[in-house]
Amino acid sequence: MSNTAQSLASTRIASLLDENSFVEIGGQVTARSTDFNMAGMETPSDGVITGYGVINGSLVYVYSQDASVMGGTIGEMHAKKIARLYEFAQKTGAPVIGLVDCAGMRLQEATDALNGFGEIYMAQAMASGVIPQITAVFGTCGGGMALIPAMTDFTFMESKNGKLFVNSPNALDGNHVSKCDTASADFQGEEAGLVDFAGTEEEILGQIRNLVSMLPANNEDEAYTECEDDLNRACADLANCAGDTGILLSQLSDNGIYFETKAAYGKDVVTAFIQLNGATVGAVANRSEIYGEDGTVKEKMDGTLSARGAKKAADFVNFCDAFCIPVLTITNVTGFKATKCSERTMAKNAAALTAAFANATVPKVNVVVGKAYGSAYVVMNSKSIGADMVFAWPNAEIGMMDAKSAAKIMYEGSDAATINEKAAEYATLQNNVTSAARRGYVDTIIEPEDTRKYVIGAFEMLYTKREDRPDRKHGTV
Fold first, then answer.
1. Does domain 224-396+442-461 have CATH number 2.60.120.600?
2. Which pLDDT belongs to residue 299?
3. Domain CoA carboxyltransferase N-terminal spans what residues (predicted)?
4. CB atoms within 10 A of CB 115
């Protein structure tokens, strides 16, 4: 066995966890198969180091695959070690972190290896919604192995050496890796929406530590730290951030703490964890522009909700609800994205987002910071699908569509003066935020700079929220 490669698997664990906190489990386990000359082959730890340690003092379970042992392939005992780790994690209520570098199923063990995959899948499925699951892909993660990060809650991927695929790029009809590298971190982040963060190994391990520090240990725990920020802090420039809500959320959060998920996918929606009064809050926000570090606009969107954005948001809300994390939405949307690509899954994904918000029993607060038009507004955690508190800025517009478009439809064939007159009337009667507040669709109209204190106050009020749902096995949307 290569000492360099062995140290790579163990060094990743050491770099991830608090210093000297790792305790190995099953270090003496080796393969028991004797087929295909396996009897004389050494498989130290059967190619995977498993154990537990702490991140910032919190218990986590970790497995790290060793590519120097038969390519890190999964055999019978390799799989049993991972499944056993999940048993410990569920009994003690702590996250599982997988550090993946694996050539796939071990061919020499055939059906035993296949059964091992199934045991891991089963363990993951049973742990879903009970403990947070995180995967980091540092090398190859192909074939059936690709299902493992897909079944976890968060996936990280090394930008250069990470490869994630069910079928390799060269096995796809009409494709070649030089044409489209479907196994790359870029493709899996931007197109597949599977990767939350891509970067160097050091960056990934640091980001996992940050994420674990913000998450509850299990579905009965709370994610809370002491707040050192002013609860009544005014956010003077918040009104200028209505376009790039990633910046808006970081300004709202305690001391700017902000962790965005799936940033490269469905960019018209931001999903992120922030902290308010020390408590972790899941945030979902429409976004129409992205600013670079130099303060200039790097990318612009059209203000609509895309199918990808809806799916990303739905998955995020479901995670938050499973782990009792309150949800904040920042609404600024003009409708659904109208493209052939988006239309393929628009209805299904928008329905999934609607169901996610409607089914979520955690505290839900919505802030309308701009336009809120049509069904796209309704699915963004509106009062009608279960928002507990809805705030709106004074310039917010809530209605079916923009006033001029509505006037053109209602007074088709009329002259420009009439259209303008009726548009102004429609804006006053229907789209005005005061009109929405009078009907109870908005609870309070607030100034942008006061958003932080109002949102914190709402979540404090909702802390003891209890809400029943119909007696059923599960929904089907």
1. no
2. 96
3. 1-234
4. 13
Indicate the average pLDDT of the chain. Answer: 91
Contact 332, 369 (CB under 8 A): yes
- Determine the 3-state secondary structure of 392 from DSSP: strand
**What whole-number percentage of the chain has pLDDT above 90?**
79
- Which pLDDT value is given to residue 100? 95
Q: How far is CA 11 from CA 66, 95, 333, in A?
A: 11, 20, 46
- pTM value is 0.93
Residues present in the chain in total: 477
Would you list the DSSP string of 140-164?
Answer: EEEGGGGHHHHHSSEEEEETTT-EE
Please state which of the four CATH numbers 3.20.20.30, 3.90.226.10, 3.40.30.10, 2.30.40.10 is assigned to the domain occupying 3-212: 3.90.226.10
| 381: nearest Cα among 403, 359, 400, 399 | 359
Q: Which DSSP string corresponds to 104-145?
A: -B-GGGHHHHHHHHHHHHHHHHHHTTTS-EEEEEEEEEEGGG
Residue 238: the pLDDT is 97
Calculate helix-pair angle for 416-426, 403-410, nearest 10 degrees.
120
Q: What is the mean pLDDT of residues 462-475?
A: 92
Q: What backbone torsions phi and psi does residue 351 show, to the nearest 5 degrees?
A: -65, -40
Quickly count: other Cβ atoms within 10 Å of residue 30's Cβ: 17
Tokens of 453: 């204190």
